[in-house]
# Entry
Amino acid sequence: MQLYYFEGDNFGDRLNPFLFGALFNQVDFAERFPEHLFLGVGSILGEEAFDHIPPDLKAVVFGAGIRRQTVTRPPNILPEFVRGPLSAKRMDCPFIADAAYLLPFMKEYPALAASGKQCRVSLIPHYRHVATIDWERIARTTGINVIMPDWPVPRVLRAVAASEFVIGGAMYGCILADILRIPWARLRFRIHEADLETQLLKWEDWTGAFGLEKYPVFTMKTLNTASRQPTIGLEDELIGVLNSRVRTDEFALTGDAVFEDVIERLREAVRSFSRKFGISVNPYRTIGLQ
# Structure
Protein backbone atom coordinates (compact mmCIF):
# COMPACT_ATOMS: atom_id res chain seq x y z
CA MET A 1 0.00 0.00 0.00
CA GLN A 2 0.99 3.61 -0.38
CA LEU A 3 0.53 6.01 2.52
CA TYR A 4 -1.48 8.97 1.19
CA TYR A 5 -1.77 12.25 3.12
CA PHE A 6 -1.35 15.99 2.78
CA GLU A 7 2.39 16.61 2.98
CA GLY A 8 3.29 19.89 4.62
CA ASP A 9 3.66 21.61 7.97
CA ASN A 10 0.36 20.55 9.55
CA PHE A 11 1.18 18.47 12.62
CA GLY A 12 -1.75 16.09 12.20
CA ASP A 13 -0.65 15.19 8.68
CA ARG A 14 2.92 14.65 9.88
CA LEU A 15 1.66 11.99 12.29
CA ASN A 16 1.02 9.63 9.38
CA PRO A 17 4.56 8.41 8.60
CA PHE A 18 5.45 8.47 12.31
CA LEU A 19 2.45 6.39 13.35
CA PHE A 20 1.92 3.99 10.48
CA GLY A 21 5.65 3.60 9.89
CA ALA A 22 5.74 2.02 13.35
CA LEU A 23 2.39 0.26 13.43
CA PHE A 24 2.73 -2.05 10.44
CA ASN A 25 5.52 -4.19 9.01
CA GLN A 26 6.85 -1.87 6.32
CA VAL A 27 7.88 -4.66 3.94
CA ASP A 28 4.34 -6.06 4.05
CA PHE A 29 2.88 -2.56 3.76
CA ALA A 30 4.88 -1.79 0.62
CA GLU A 31 4.46 -5.16 -1.08
CA ARG A 32 0.86 -6.10 -0.28
CA PHE A 33 -1.70 -4.45 -2.53
CA PRO A 34 0.84 -1.97 -3.92
CA GLU A 35 -1.87 -0.44 -6.10
CA HIS A 36 -3.91 0.59 -3.02
CA LEU A 37 -3.62 3.92 -1.22
CA PHE A 38 -3.94 4.17 2.58
CA LEU A 39 -5.66 7.20 4.15
CA GLY A 40 -5.09 7.54 7.89
CA VAL A 41 -4.76 10.69 10.02
CA GLY A 42 -6.31 13.89 8.71
CA SER A 43 -9.35 15.60 7.18
CA ILE A 44 -8.51 14.18 3.77
CA LEU A 45 -11.88 12.75 2.69
CA GLY A 46 -13.05 15.30 0.15
CA GLU A 47 -12.94 16.33 -3.46
CA GLU A 48 -9.48 17.86 -2.99
CA ALA A 49 -8.07 14.36 -2.48
CA PHE A 50 -10.61 12.29 -4.41
CA ASP A 51 -10.02 14.30 -7.60
CA HIS A 52 -6.37 13.24 -7.51
CA ILE A 53 -7.10 9.54 -7.01
CA PRO A 54 -7.70 7.80 -10.36
CA PRO A 55 -11.00 5.84 -10.39
CA ASP A 56 -9.16 2.58 -11.08
CA LEU A 57 -6.99 3.04 -7.95
CA LYS A 58 -8.48 1.86 -4.63
CA ALA A 59 -7.99 3.81 -1.40
CA VAL A 60 -8.39 2.22 2.04
CA VAL A 61 -9.61 4.62 4.75
CA PHE A 62 -8.38 3.96 8.29
CA GLY A 63 -9.61 6.71 10.59
CA ALA A 64 -9.55 9.76 8.31
CA GLY A 65 -12.31 12.39 8.31
CA ILE A 66 -14.33 14.44 5.84
CA ARG A 67 -13.71 18.09 4.91
CA ARG A 68 -17.23 18.99 3.69
CA GLN A 69 -20.78 17.99 4.62
CA THR A 70 -21.58 17.62 0.90
CA VAL A 71 -18.89 15.09 0.00
CA THR A 72 -19.95 11.75 -1.47
CA ARG A 73 -17.91 8.56 -1.48
CA PRO A 74 -16.62 7.37 -4.85
CA PRO A 75 -16.78 3.59 -5.37
CA ASN A 76 -12.98 3.23 -5.21
CA ILE A 77 -12.84 4.62 -1.64
CA LEU A 78 -12.92 1.67 0.79
CA PRO A 79 -13.46 2.70 4.44
CA GLU A 80 -12.51 0.36 7.26
CA PHE A 81 -13.64 3.07 9.68
CA VAL A 82 -13.68 6.88 9.82
CA ARG A 83 -13.07 9.59 12.42
CA GLY A 84 -16.55 10.38 13.68
CA PRO A 85 -20.32 10.36 13.11
CA LEU A 86 -20.33 13.16 10.52
CA SER A 87 -17.75 11.33 8.43
CA ALA A 88 -19.61 8.05 8.87
CA LYS A 89 -22.82 9.58 7.54
CA ARG A 90 -21.19 10.89 4.37
CA MET A 91 -18.99 7.83 3.78
CA ASP A 92 -21.75 5.33 4.71
CA CYS A 93 -19.51 3.29 7.00
CA PRO A 94 -18.68 2.78 10.71
CA PHE A 95 -16.77 5.30 12.79
CA ILE A 96 -14.47 4.66 15.72
CA ALA A 97 -12.20 7.68 16.28
CA ASP A 98 -9.47 9.73 14.67
CA ALA A 99 -6.58 7.49 13.60
CA ALA A 100 -4.27 9.38 15.96
CA TYR A 101 -5.89 7.37 18.77
CA LEU A 102 -3.77 4.44 17.56
CA LEU A 103 -0.82 6.05 19.40
CA PRO A 104 -1.46 3.99 22.59
CA PHE A 105 -0.36 0.91 20.64
CA MET A 106 3.14 2.31 20.15
CA LYS A 107 5.82 1.10 22.56
CA GLU A 108 6.64 4.68 23.51
CA TYR A 109 3.15 5.33 24.84
CA PRO A 110 3.35 3.91 28.42
CA ALA A 111 6.47 5.95 29.18
CA LEU A 112 4.88 9.08 27.68
CA ALA A 113 1.65 8.59 29.64
CA ALA A 114 3.63 8.16 32.85
CA SER A 115 5.85 11.19 32.26
CA GLY A 116 6.51 13.54 35.14
CA LYS A 117 4.92 16.96 34.73
CA GLN A 118 7.37 19.76 34.12
CA CYS A 119 4.94 22.60 33.39
CA ARG A 120 1.39 23.43 34.41
CA VAL A 121 -0.01 24.70 31.10
CA SER A 122 1.30 24.28 27.56
CA LEU A 123 0.00 25.88 24.37
CA ILE A 124 0.37 24.43 20.86
CA PRO A 125 -0.31 27.06 18.16
CA HIS A 126 -1.91 26.21 14.85
CA TYR A 127 0.81 25.81 12.24
CA ARG A 128 -0.63 28.74 10.25
CA HIS A 129 -0.02 31.00 13.24
CA VAL A 130 3.61 30.09 13.92
CA ALA A 131 4.90 33.24 12.18
CA THR A 132 2.02 35.60 13.01
CA ILE A 133 2.69 35.93 16.73
CA ASP A 134 5.80 36.38 18.85
CA TRP A 135 5.37 33.16 20.84
CA GLU A 136 8.45 33.82 22.94
CA ARG A 137 6.76 36.98 24.22
CA ILE A 138 3.55 35.03 24.92
CA ALA A 139 5.46 32.43 26.93
CA ARG A 140 7.51 35.04 28.76
CA THR A 141 4.50 37.19 29.67
CA THR A 142 1.98 34.48 30.62
CA GLY A 143 4.29 31.81 32.02
CA ILE A 144 2.66 29.30 29.66
CA ASN A 145 4.95 26.80 27.95
CA VAL A 146 4.70 27.04 24.13
CA ILE A 147 5.12 23.88 22.06
CA MET A 148 5.79 24.65 18.41
CA PRO A 149 3.87 22.42 15.97
CA ASP A 150 6.79 22.27 13.53
CA TRP A 151 9.02 20.48 16.02
CA PRO A 152 9.77 16.80 15.27
CA VAL A 153 6.84 14.59 16.25
CA PRO A 154 8.64 12.80 19.15
CA ARG A 155 9.63 16.15 20.67
CA VAL A 156 6.03 17.41 20.51
CA LEU A 157 4.79 14.21 22.15
CA ARG A 158 7.29 14.50 24.98
CA ALA A 159 6.42 18.16 25.57
CA VAL A 160 2.68 17.45 25.65
CA ALA A 161 3.21 14.51 28.01
CA ALA A 162 5.15 16.76 30.40
CA SER A 163 2.19 19.19 30.72
CA GLU A 164 -0.63 19.21 33.26
CA PHE A 165 -3.00 21.05 30.90
CA VAL A 166 -2.87 21.79 27.18
CA ILE A 167 -4.35 24.57 25.04
CA GLY A 168 -4.53 23.67 21.37
CA GLY A 169 -4.68 26.16 18.55
CA ALA A 170 -5.07 23.15 16.26
CA MET A 171 -7.26 20.11 16.78
CA TYR A 172 -4.38 17.67 16.92
CA GLY A 173 -2.82 19.51 19.83
CA CYS A 174 -5.97 18.76 21.80
CA ILE A 175 -6.20 15.22 20.42
CA LEU A 176 -2.64 14.45 21.57
CA ALA A 177 -3.47 15.77 25.03
CA ASP A 178 -6.63 13.67 25.15
CA ILE A 179 -4.74 10.54 24.07
CA LEU A 180 -2.24 11.15 26.87
CA ARG A 181 -5.19 11.79 29.26
CA ILE A 182 -4.27 15.43 29.80
CA PRO A 183 -7.14 17.97 30.10
CA TRP A 184 -7.29 20.37 27.16
CA ALA A 185 -8.99 23.48 25.79
CA ARG A 186 -9.23 24.97 22.31
CA LEU A 187 -7.75 28.33 21.29
CA ARG A 188 -9.67 29.83 18.38
CA PHE A 189 -8.84 33.00 16.49
CA ARG A 190 -11.48 35.07 14.70
CA ILE A 191 -10.16 33.78 11.38
CA HIS A 192 -8.64 30.44 12.34
CA GLU A 193 -7.61 29.53 8.83
CA ALA A 194 -8.90 29.89 5.30
CA ASP A 195 -11.41 27.05 5.48
CA LEU A 196 -13.88 27.82 8.27
CA GLU A 197 -16.31 25.04 7.28
CA THR A 198 -13.66 22.37 7.63
CA GLN A 199 -12.60 23.77 11.02
CA LEU A 200 -16.12 23.64 12.44
CA LEU A 201 -16.87 20.24 10.96
CA LYS A 202 -13.76 18.37 12.00
CA TRP A 203 -13.94 19.43 15.65
CA GLU A 204 -17.57 18.30 15.83
CA ASP A 205 -16.70 15.05 14.08
CA TRP A 206 -13.82 14.26 16.46
CA THR A 207 -15.64 15.11 19.69
CA GLY A 208 -18.85 13.48 18.43
CA ALA A 209 -17.09 10.12 18.30
CA PHE A 210 -16.68 10.40 22.09
CA GLY A 211 -20.10 11.88 22.83
CA LEU A 212 -18.44 15.11 23.99
CA GLU A 213 -20.99 17.85 23.33
CA LYS A 214 -19.21 20.78 24.99
CA TYR A 215 -15.61 21.76 25.51
CA PRO A 216 -13.91 25.04 26.46
CA VAL A 217 -12.94 27.45 23.69
CA PHE A 218 -10.68 30.44 24.28
CA THR A 219 -11.85 32.82 21.54
CA MET A 220 -9.89 35.70 20.03
CA LYS A 221 -11.64 38.66 18.38
CA THR A 222 -8.81 40.30 16.43
CA LEU A 223 -8.47 39.29 12.78
CA ASN A 224 -5.53 36.97 12.26
CA THR A 225 -4.49 35.20 9.06
CA ALA A 226 -1.41 33.34 7.87
CA SER A 227 -0.17 36.45 6.03
CA ARG A 228 -0.56 38.83 8.97
CA GLN A 229 2.62 39.96 10.69
CA PRO A 230 2.84 39.97 14.51
CA THR A 231 1.35 43.03 16.19
CA ILE A 232 1.45 44.13 19.77
CA GLY A 233 -2.34 44.52 19.79
CA LEU A 234 -2.96 40.94 18.68
CA GLU A 235 -0.45 39.59 21.15
CA ASP A 236 -1.83 41.72 23.99
CA GLU A 237 -5.31 40.36 23.32
CA LEU A 238 -4.01 36.79 23.38
CA ILE A 239 -2.14 37.44 26.63
CA GLY A 240 -5.34 38.83 28.16
CA VAL A 241 -7.41 35.86 26.98
CA LEU A 242 -4.92 33.35 28.35
CA ASN A 243 -4.49 35.12 31.69
CA SER A 244 -8.24 35.41 32.22
CA ARG A 245 -9.30 31.96 31.02
CA VAL A 246 -6.59 29.56 32.15
CA ARG A 247 -8.22 27.90 35.12
CA THR A 248 -8.34 24.17 35.78
CA ASP A 249 -12.16 24.12 35.65
CA GLU A 250 -12.04 25.27 32.02
CA PHE A 251 -10.40 22.20 30.54
CA ALA A 252 -12.01 19.09 29.04
CA LEU A 253 -11.18 15.40 28.76
CA THR A 254 -13.07 12.56 27.13
CA GLY A 255 -14.45 10.01 29.60
CA ASP A 256 -12.20 7.14 30.65
CA ALA A 257 -14.79 4.47 29.86
CA VAL A 258 -15.42 5.85 26.38
CA PHE A 259 -11.68 6.19 25.78
CA GLU A 260 -11.03 2.58 26.78
CA ASP A 261 -13.88 1.39 24.56
CA VAL A 262 -12.40 3.29 21.60
CA ILE A 263 -8.99 1.73 22.20
CA GLU A 264 -10.50 -1.77 22.24
CA ARG A 265 -12.39 -1.14 19.01
CA LEU A 266 -9.23 0.22 17.39
CA ARG A 267 -7.34 -2.86 18.51
CA GLU A 268 -9.84 -5.07 16.71
CA ALA A 269 -9.78 -2.77 13.66
CA VAL A 270 -5.99 -3.16 13.37
CA ARG A 271 -6.22 -6.93 13.73
CA SER A 272 -9.04 -7.10 11.19
CA PHE A 273 -7.07 -4.98 8.71
CA SER A 274 -3.99 -7.15 9.22
CA ARG A 275 -5.94 -10.35 8.51
CA LYS A 276 -7.83 -8.88 5.57
CA PHE A 277 -4.84 -7.47 3.69
CA GLY A 278 -2.07 -9.76 4.93
CA ILE A 279 -0.12 -6.83 6.42
CA SER A 280 1.41 -7.82 9.73
CA VAL A 281 1.76 -5.60 12.78
CA ASN A 282 5.31 -4.56 13.66
CA PRO A 283 6.03 -6.44 16.92
CA TYR A 284 9.14 -4.38 17.65
CA ARG A 285 7.39 -1.00 17.69
CA THR A 286 3.94 -1.85 19.06
CA ILE A 287 2.26 -3.20 22.19
CA GLY A 288 -1.08 -4.90 22.79
CA LEU A 289 -1.71 -5.99 19.20
CA GLN A 290 -0.08 -9.42 18.97
About this structure: The mean pLDDT is 92. The longest strand covers residues 119-124. The longest helix spans residues 256-277.
